[in-house]
Structures are given as structure tokens and as C-alpha cells.
Amino acid sequence: TPKPSSAASDVYKRQGLNKRESKDMVDAFFDLITTRLVAGEDVKISGFGNFQIRTKAARPGRNPRTGESIPIEARRVVTFHASLKLKEQIQQSVPHTADTPA
């Protein structure tokens, strides 16, 4: 299993920026995405995918432990849809074996 790494450390290694600049750049990127989503705007990243805000209506729910009915309030959620290019890259990187689902 590949070891996870931070985006800032990947920018540092690949682009030759110092660690502080790399961290600031990555933080600014995610702050911009967050700001746009909070404002209700979709965020599209070419070759990667789309982040969208969706409003879910209030609905009845159930506590699975007790079976008690509880109301679930209306809320906004973020959804992500990967681009075709990203999906293809992921599929190409996965070795398919007999016991690995396709």
C-alpha cells in the first residue's frame, strides 16, 4: 500500500519551492475551493472532477440502536464526481487479479 503524503510536501519535492511556500500555496488552493463551496458555487477542476453543493431536504430518520424515530434536518452537502480522465487513470493503475473486482 502506498504511503500517504501531504500535498504540500509533494509540491515542495516536485516544484522546488521551499516548504513554507508549498504549504501556503496548497492552503490557499483549498481555502479558495472552500470559499466557493460555502458560497454555493460549484467547483470544477479540469481533468480531476467537480465538487457540487447539494441541498438535502428534511426527512424522518431512525436511531439504529433504539429504533426511535428522529427528525433529520435539512442540510447542505458536498458531492464529488470524478472526471472521466481521473477514473481512467485510477483504473489503469490498479492491477486486476482473479479476486479483485473489476
Q: What is the distance, rounded to the nearest whole angstrom, between the alpha carbons of the first and last residues? A: 18 Å
Q: Can you give the helix content as a percent range?
A: 25-40%
- Secondary-structure element order, as H and E? HHEEEEEH
Structural class: alpha+beta
- Number-wise, the strands total 5
Largest sheet: 3 strands, antiparallel
The low-confidence parts are none
Gyration radius from CA atoms, angstroms = 20 Å
Quick take:
The protein is α+β, with helices and mostly antiparallel strands and 102 residues long. The protein has three helices and five strands; from the N terminus they run ααβββββα.
What does this protein structure show overall?
Helices cover 38% and strands 26% of the residues. The protein has three helices and five strands, in the order H-H-E-E-E-E-E-H. The protein has a three-stranded antiparallel β-sheet with strand order 1-2-5. It has a two-stranded antiparallel sheet with strand order 3-4. The two termini are 18 Å apart.
Give a topology summary.
Elements: H1 7-15, H2 19-38, E1 43-45, E2 49-56, E3 59-62, E4 69-72, E5 75-82, H3 84-93
Helix pairs in contact: 1-2
Key features of this structure:
single chain, 102 residues, alpha+beta, three-stranded antiparallel sheet, two-stranded antiparallel sheet, 3 helices, 38% helix
